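This section describes the prediction task in plain terms. A model, or a person checking by hand, is given the sequence of a single protein chain and must write out its three-dimensional structure as a string of tokens. No templates, partner chains or ligands are provided. The sample shown here is typical of the held-out split.
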Amino acid sequence: MDTVIGCEGSNKVLLTFRFEHCSFMMAYLLDSKEARNVKNKFDYLERTVGTIVFASSFSVILTDRGGEFRDPFALDRGQDNLVRTSVYYCTPMCSWQKPHCKKNQEYIRKVYPKGTSFDSYSQSDINKLMIHINSTPRKSLGGLSPMMLAKLTLPHELLDYFGLYEMPAGRITLTPALLKNQIHCAPLFRRIHRNTMLAPVLSFLYTSYKISVHILAWFPNHSDQNFPNK
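The expected answer:
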């Protein structure tokens, strides 16, 4: 388990899970990188798929000692104080103990380069990203995709509820073109915003841009079928 942060000054982050046996990754938007948001997401997932499915899917979780994971007991126990998982930490300064988690996140950065904010995205956008990432065949899996193996080894409730399915190879897109409404937080823009009288104008322009992005997303030319393929 890990988090992927956006650019400086943004709020939303991604909470990611990687299933070791099949390289399958799931990601969920958090409003901010705080321990309470991680716990709330655990509670939500447990309510959604049920305690038994949650416990069988996330029986053991390995993560780092980031502040967002500082309360393992709150994560371990869920509804009715039942044990739903066991959270363990890597040794301090030993991120190599979960190298595949970091490697898997490189797929996220192909679509969301560093310097990108997650603030304008929804969970449905992230689910779409996970579909494309998990449908990509891996040499380490003998040419199979994580999604293929996940369908054989993970509870179907976990995949079905979040609408995760196998994307045909010819339609997989792992570039920023997959999700076009990217917002990059330029340090220069932020300094101007904080330190000059232009702040109200820039705030208005920034808000207008985000609104226009959501409006354009409804037009047909933004549908899946028109995204460029590799």
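For orientation: Residues 22 and 146 are 5 Å apart (CA to CA).
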